[in-house]
Amino acid sequence: QVQLVESGGGLVQPGGSLRLSCAASGRILSISAMDWYRQAPGKERELVADITSGGYRNYADSVKGRFTISRDNANNAVYLQMNSLKPDDTAVYYCHARGVRVPGLWYPEVWGQGTQVTVSS
Question: Do residues 38 and 92 make contact, with C-beta atoms less than 8 angstroms apart?
Answer without folding.
Answer: yes
